[in-house]
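Researcher: I'd like a structural prediction for the single chain below. Treat it as a standalone chain; there are no partners to consider.
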Amino acid sequence: MSDTTPEINAAAAAAGDEAVTDEVTDAVPSAVMQDDVDAPTADRSAAVTTPSADDSASEPATDMGAEPVTDVDRDSEAGASTPAPDEAGTDRADADAEAGAARAANGGRAARLKQLEREGEVAADFLETLLDIADLDGDLDVDVDGDRAAVAIVDSEEGRVPRRLVGEDGKVLEALQELTRLAVQVETGERSRLMLDVAGYRAERRAALVSLAQAAIAEVQASGERKALEPMSAFERKVVHDVVAAAGLVSESEGVDPNRHIIILPG
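Model: Treating it as a single chain, here is the predicted structure.
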């Protein structure tokens, strides 16, 4: 009995160790066990390392109390550092634009002036031919008056301009002016507002109309009532309208030609 007891105890101990080993194996995941089996002992001891001084120096220090810097903060800082627009350059650009507009306006006025001068030349050629055909005396003066070409038939050394070219109340003159405008339009392709005068009739009539308008203005201001003037041509009405406006009153045209006239209204 005593001889077999050590053998039985050794077998029992071996069986107990195997049972414990099986329990441990079942409790630990196979992947961990495989890593422990495959990795050398030296490698496992090197898996946990202490950061060196160089590693610590290469990592930026973190202030646990400071707020983290975000991309918004970086964008704000970048925007704050963006240089302001070049105000001097903007001023130069504005000045250049204004200069360009002025040059364009000057060029437009020059082109318009050239057009009006062309109208005057065409009108003078037409009227000269007409005078030659009618065998009438007279010289031609060509000018630009405001936004119109102005042509005048004046007395010449050979003789005076026949006053019949003016007619009663300037009716013949108005007809001759319209005929001349049509001749200019045919030549240039543009509608003309050319003004024609004969023997200074319009200049004399303008002076008379200014006096007439001033007297009517004084009457309206004194009475406070509107006043109607006699029928006038478009040229005559334009003269009166200008005088009334300069006096600070209002005028308007009523009726149809040949009875179209001006009404001066109290201020």
